[in-house]
Amino acid sequence: MSVEQNVKEVKAKIEAAAREAGRNPSEITLVAATKVQTSETIREAIAAGITVCGENRVQELTAHLEDNAYEGAELHFIGHLQTNKVKYIVGRVDLIQSVDSSRLLEAIAGQAARIGRVQDILLEVNIGGEESKGGCPLHQVMDLARLACQEKQIRLRGLMCIPPAVENPADARPYFEKMRQLFVDIKRELEDNENRITYLSMGMSGDFEEAVRCGATHVRVGTALFGKRPPIGLHK
Ligand SMILES: *Cc1c(COP(=O)(O)O)cnc(C)c1O
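Above: inputs. Below: predicted complex with pyridoxal-5'-phosphate.
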């Protein structure tokens, strides 16, 4: 299967899941998770209708930027971000989806101030409470969201999660529903003119349809677009 066909197929599935849930398919953005892909493949995906690329690694992102590989698409950072790498990301991406600590938040705000930019972010939530995963612990998310809204150089746009791996996509549903509730709570308490909290990023190749049914506005899909990757860590 070609990338072009895969893009078509995934989009059709998103559309069907949205309609099933009584949602308008235009509310959902397909983010292509492009880790380990070549600049050529990324261009192919954009030519096939991908409008947002999500990158995990600072080094790959920088190389693809030098190559102009993302031209025509938005760029999101979706991987684990170390504070010492923040300077390579802030101002170069449209959205950082993976902010999970006050330390990282403050490093991003500091760099944004230095270059005179406002950086859009999502907070990543460790919704399964998994030791092995990044993401802010559930009980700290509201405080981190408040902090994000106080930072002038940061605009909080919503939440992101990577739920625990499950056998059956339907088993991810409780996590997605919990995310949806948290999203609604944070939106209600914190949304204002500066912080338009409208993004809920959840769902990957194995469970994006379920995520769409549960209210996702962004699904991050890699394997279903590009085929199987060589085994590297998913998130870190
Ligand atoms: C790789 C990755 C994805 C996509 O995973 P697939 O299962 O290949 O669709 C989504 N989100 C993040 C943060 C990723 O690292």
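The radius of gyration is 17 Å.
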